[in-house]
Design a protein that fits this description.
The chain is mainly β. The N and C termini lie far apart (88 Å). A hairpin with a 4-residue loop joins β12 and β13. It is rod-shaped and about 105 Å long.
Length: 448
């Protein structure tokens, strides 16, 4: 499977790609690291036989005693997968040399050409640390997804993709399908796939997805990935072609609410909107690059007054793949209540968070100062230093809020009347919320 050509010394250009890649890794969220040049749009040495996709390698940069015997078996192609945002893919192709089929090969590491036998144990791909032939990876994704079109002469031919996330070692990916040293492998993903179209026919693209399976090592440092035109070294036919596009690492997504600082909301008396800020945490793969999905939206929802989300009210939404804040608005038609809850949902990948975990009180909307079963009297109103509250039913609790929603007074009453000292209140309008047996009554008072 692993073949060879002469060593291409990339000099300063290699250094530029290494530094660029490392900057790219630093810029990625630690739980969403990707291959550099995963869309295969960037190529080096175009127009020559030494052409290779940036930070991906083939026979033209091989090491080993027989590297000088090989020729180019990779090139940029303007064939692209359906729905691609780019313009190119990688075409990897096989050739016959001295009667032996040399499989096409593309890797994030480096090819070692150490044997004339296709299955020789000195032919392998490997991570070469501290060079352009390594790809840092410090997390383990859930799966790898890639688009391929495999055009082969034999209907029984199988191409393959092999990936290993491994520790701090120059790991070898062997023609037998194993790794050396095997005890440094953190996780692997592998897929063998039949041709998608026959030689000479139009390309047929297919999206492959393969899960990562845990290995024995638990300290990931690098990822080594290889695409080959045949799963068997020397297998297939001369001229078999494997087109590869948009190689993407998938991370299990999750969504959750952040801490909701405010749980008491009172509608402003001036008729302006009642704002609510909902912070959320979003991680993993959302608008996956190679899935052709619409941009992800995160939507904040409000339950009914009993905390039920069967028919939620939308508070606001944002288009994002990252954590953030929704600056929502509570509609004025929302009924007064003490058991509201908030949650967030996403559209792509569809997820629903747990609710905020604490009851939310909302009052003072369109129902304020309307008819109540209980006869409540508050006087004088406007008031100076004191206000008296009377009721024909037992008042269990009284809360007073400023018009910006801050609670300024609270008392457990358990009687029909009481006097409230307003001497420390600033002048202005306040919302009085009273809990009685079977209902909640909201009134306005004015401190003069």
């Amino acid at each position: 499977m692993y073949h060879f050509n002469f060593i291409l010394r990339k000099g300063l250009l290699c250094l530029v790609f290494v530094l660029t890649f490392l900057l790219c890794i630093d810029a990625e969220a630690q739980d969403n690291q990707q291959f550099y040049n995963y869309d295969l749009e960037s190529w080096v040495n175009e127009g020559s036989e030494d052409v290779e996709p940036a930070h991906w390698h083939s026979f033209m940069s091989a090491s080993g005693g027989f590297s000088g015997l090989m020729s180019q078996q990779i090139e940029p192609s303007y064939a692209k997968r359906p729905g691609s945002q780019g313009s190119r893919s990688a075409r990897i192709f096989s050739k016959k040399k001295v009667g032996i089929v040399a499989n096409g090969n593309m890797t994030t590491g480096r090819i070692n050409a150490g044997s004339m036998s296709a299955s020789g144990d000195k032919n392998y791909n490997y991570t070469q640390r501290n060079s352009d032939y390594c790809t840092p990876m410090t997390v383990i994704p859930d799966s790898l997804a890639v688009w391929v079109a495999f055009r082969a002469e034999d209907a029984g031919s199988y191409a393959n993709v092999m990936t290993a996330i491994h520790g701090d070692v120059d790991l070898k990916q062997l023609g037998s399908g194993g790794y050396d040293p095997a005890n440094m492998v953190c996780a692997t993903a592998k897929r063998e796939f039949a041709r998608t179209c026959a030689s000479g026919s139009s390309l047929v693209w297919k999206r492959l997805s393969m899960p990562f399976v845990a290995g024995s090592h638990n300290d990931p440092k690098y990822i080594l990935t290889t695409f080959s035109t045949n799963k068997n070294p020397g297998g297939g036919s001369s001229g078999d072609e494997l087109f590869v596009d948009d190689i993407y690492l998938i991370y299990n997504p999750s969504i959750s609410l952040d801490y909701l600082a405010q749980t008491e909301y009172v509608f402003p008396l001036d008729g302006s909107v009642l704002n609510i800020d909902i912070a959320f945490n979003l991680s993993g793969s959302m608008s996956v690059y190679n899935l052709n999905k619409d941009a992800n939206q995160v939507i904040a929802q409000l339950s009914d007054a009993d905390g039920n989300f069967d028919n939620p009210t939308e508070l606001g939404r944002v288009t994002t793949d990252e954590s953030g804040v929704i600056h929502g608005v509570i509609p004025s038609y929302i009924k007064d209540g003490d058991a509201y809850r908030v949650r967030v949902v996403s559209t792509n990948y569809p997820m629903t968070s747990e609710d905020n975990g604490t009851d939310i009180s909302i009052y003072g909307g369109n129902g304020i100062d309307t008819y109540f079963l209980t006869n409540i009297d508050i006087y004088p109103n406007p008031a100076d230093d004191f206000v008296k509250v009377t009721s024909n039913n037992i008042i269990r609790e009284i809360n007073i809020f400023s018009i910006d929603g801050r609670m300024v007074y609270s008392d457990n009453v358990n009687q029909n009347e009481m006097t409230i000292d307003l001497s420390s209140f600033n002048k202005g309008t306040y919302i009085v919320r009273m809990i009685l047996d079977g209902e909640v009554v909201v009134k306005r008072i004015v401190k003069i």
